[in-house]
Sequence to fold (474 residues):
Amino acid sequence: MFRTRFAPSPTGYMHIGNLRTALYAYLIARQADGKFILRIEDTDQNRNVPEAVQAIYNGLKLAGIEYDEGPDKDGGFGPYVQSQRLPIYAEYAQKILDSGHAYYCFCQKEDKPALEETGERVQGYRDPCRSLSEEEARVKFAQGIVPVVRQRIPEGTSTFYDHVYGEITIDNSQLDDQVLLKSDGFPTYNFANVVDDHLMAITHVIRGQEYLTSTPKYNLLYEAFGWNRPEYIHLPHIIREDGGKLSKRAGDPSFEDLVRMGYLPQAIVNYVALLGWNPGDEREFFLLADLVEAFDMNRINKSNAAFSFDKLRWLNGEHIRALDPEGFHNFALPYYPQSLTGFDLRQLSALIQIRTENLTDIPGLVGFFAELPEYEADLFVHQKSKSTLESSRMVLEAVLPIFDALDEWNNESLFAVLKTFANKAGFKVGTVMWPIRTALSGQETSPGGATELAALLGKEETLRRISLGLEKLG
RNA sequence: GCUCCUAUGGUCUAGUGGUUAGGACGCGGCCCUUUCAAGGCUAAAACCCGGGUUCGAGUCCCGGUAGGAGCACCA
Fold:
């Protein structure tokens, strides 16, 4: 039975990278008919954003990623919030202390050599407290110093297999005696993730590549406890197109931000899945359910991938076009201007669906329906349609009574009547259509042609706009 | 600084010793057409560098270079 987990810390929003990690973990579990677990990693008391857990629920829900077990969905392996598991960590810390794989450290933060500031890492530095006798420790305790618990890293080298990166070997001298239990009684990620993953029977650990070099430390912990290691799937990072890292602070959008920017959740999920993975054939359009089928963790890439808004936009367009008319209409509705009344909005949706790449395009696409923009007469001149000011004047003048007499007002009837007129008058269809479309839209381009716009605007408004066009033509 | 990882067009990628190096986004052109889209066709554009191994390397090995990550009482 596969069991994977998504273990975010509650920061208040879903990073793009987190979304992909959650997605992959979900896909790996689903396609094996396994379980996908949500666990909240809130062991940093300084970094707890209230309401942030709710943001995680919302994000996953928006993405369509359903978890089988989580804080609000007990599966018998809870609690699923680390701050509620403190006694468990204390118990296992004691065990590892007893077995000698960890020790109390009474050093204060300032006592530590400043490794990074100087740029000089002290090779093989070992904490002085690792060799403290029981007696010495007792004295420190008596002095009221609250210790941390540190892992005792043994000599040697550590090797493990990762499904993405293959075999990784690291010399233990590169690993330091990391803190397992902080002085506030909370575990560090380094300890909690191992204890929880084991206790929650996680079989596959999917996480960012930043954990690759510390994985040996976790493996040593598994060994110290006599537990089996999980399988590892470390993911390359998603970066910006300019090569920098994606950061909320630098203005890069979160998953929720992207949705607000007009991208469909399913398009974002699809796009993000493709950042570092491909199906092995040339498909690119995937709905979540298709991803479950197609995903293969052995096809995950090793190198970082840049997030391209251009490609996301294209894929978003693909997803918009794949929506059924009703589905698109529901997405589009909130983007229609208030002033857009008296129109068959469903028909309008049908007109713009194929032309919408991003939902935020919509107001700009439909604005002229609500109000005819100002435009100059020379907009009637269009070489390709063989439309001139003179031809436009002739067409609009002739078309006014034809429209006025037309009883059946729809795209087909309008097109038929205009085509007949064009033939009779010796015009190309385009020469007739261009001035009408221009008069109706006041724009160089519009979603839909002359007859589609006329059908939607209705007879009265159509006649009004054509008259207005005629005025401009003098 | 030390360690680990990575390296195919601008970007996402296919490729597991023999290919005209394939696809997608974007960009240009053409077709279609009731403007614009959509759709179809098409062009330009890539194997980081240097050594090996081999009859033959984008593919294997070594060394550079470049980029990323880690080295917290953060996750």
Q: What stands out?
A: The mean pLDDT of chain A is 93. The longest strand of chain A covers residues 157-162. Residues 450-472 of chain A form the longest helix (23 residues).
